[in-house]
Design a protein that fits this description.
Blueprint: H1 2-7, H2 9-23, H3 25-51, H4 61-68, H5 71-74, E1 77-82, E2 94-97, H6 104-108, E3 116-121, H7 128-136, E4 140-142, H8 147-164, E5 167-170, H9 188-196, E6 200-205, E7 212-213, E8 218-219, E9 222-228, H10 242-267
Parallel strand pairs: 1-9, 2-5, 2-6, 3-4, 3-5
Antiparallel strand pairs: 6-9, 7-8
């Protein structure tokens, strides 16, 4: 061992790395998450180069999607999308999706329809190359600390959905939820859909608990199911209908979440 360390230090370090990666789950988790973040920042340089000729445009979102597709193979993840037929519409709509971890970025790219951009927290805009790639891809940023400014932004989006014929994706929980269920939904996404008179399409990602756990520092190969539910029409609804609409959609998503999460857990045991 001493001979190897003195004469072949890089070989020794490489072997040590491989051993730790195989036997220490926390070290493996750290390596995978570091690689994930490095991938986001590095491939974003290529995305930026591809986006620059067109400038900031929702059509650039396809480049961001393609840059993340290889990650599921690298991490050994199987992603199954159910209910794709519910996205076969050319009209504008609001996608609402549950939010668990940063892995959602990778998973949601598997089903993100054309001309659809996420509405994200403004902090992402300042995340170096990834933030710039997101901006060029047409992501809409809101400052969660400035409620009036956020409302103004969502109002502008509502007026633009039909005019520019695009779709938006919103995480109605407002923040990541590691709790294995769903947080109460904020009403912004539903107010937007009602104001624009466009349907809501709920999308549910199954629990990651079986293969990913931040507290336990565990990240193994696994299976994720994406369930796309039928659209919920908002035509004729007004502001007073938003609270009931919000709970109706959350209830349907929670039921679907519990169902598909049970399927992924059962498949792995």
């Amino acid at each position: 061992m001493e001979f190897l360390l003195l004469h072949y230090p890089f070989t020794f370090l490489f072997i040590t790395f491989l051993v730790l990666y195989q036997v220490n789950p926390a070290f493996r988790y750290f390596c995978k998450m570091t690689f994930y973040k490095l991938w986001l920042f590095t491939v974003s340089i290529l995305v930026i180069m591809l986006c620059i000729p067109r400038g900031r445009n929702v059509e650039n979102m396809k480049y961001l999607c393609m840059s993340l597709w290889p990650l599921k193979y690298i991490f050994g993840m199987k992603i199954v999308v159910k209910g794709k037929e519910n996205l076969r519409t050319k009209k504008p709509f609001v996608l609402v999706m549950n939010h668990q971890t940063s892995l959602d970025i990778m998973v949601m790219m598997e089903m993100l329809p054309s001309r659809c951009v996420p509405i994200a927290k403004k902090e992402i805009l300042y995340m170096g190359t990834f933030g710039l790639a997101c901006w060029l891809s047409g992501l809409i940023f809101i400052d969660r600390k400035k409620r009036e400014e956020s409302i103004t932004t969502l109002t502008e989006v509502a007026h633009s959905l039909h005019k520019e014929n695009f779709r938006v994706l919103i995480f109605p929980e407002g923040t990541r939820n590691h709790g294995g269920s769903m947080l109460p939904f904020k009403r912004g996404a539903f107010q937007l859909a009602v104001k624009a008179q466009v349907p809501i399409i709920p999308v549910v990602i199954s629990s990651y608990q079986d293969f990913y756990n931040q507290k336990e520092k565990r990240f193994t190969p696994g299976k994720s199911i994406i369930q796309i539910l039928p659209e919920v029409e908002t035509f004729g609804l007004g502001p007073d209908d938003v609270p009931k609409l919000t709970e109706q959609v959350r209830d349907s998503m929670l039921t679907a979440y519990q169902g598909i999460s049970g399927m992924t857990n059962g498949a792995s045991h």
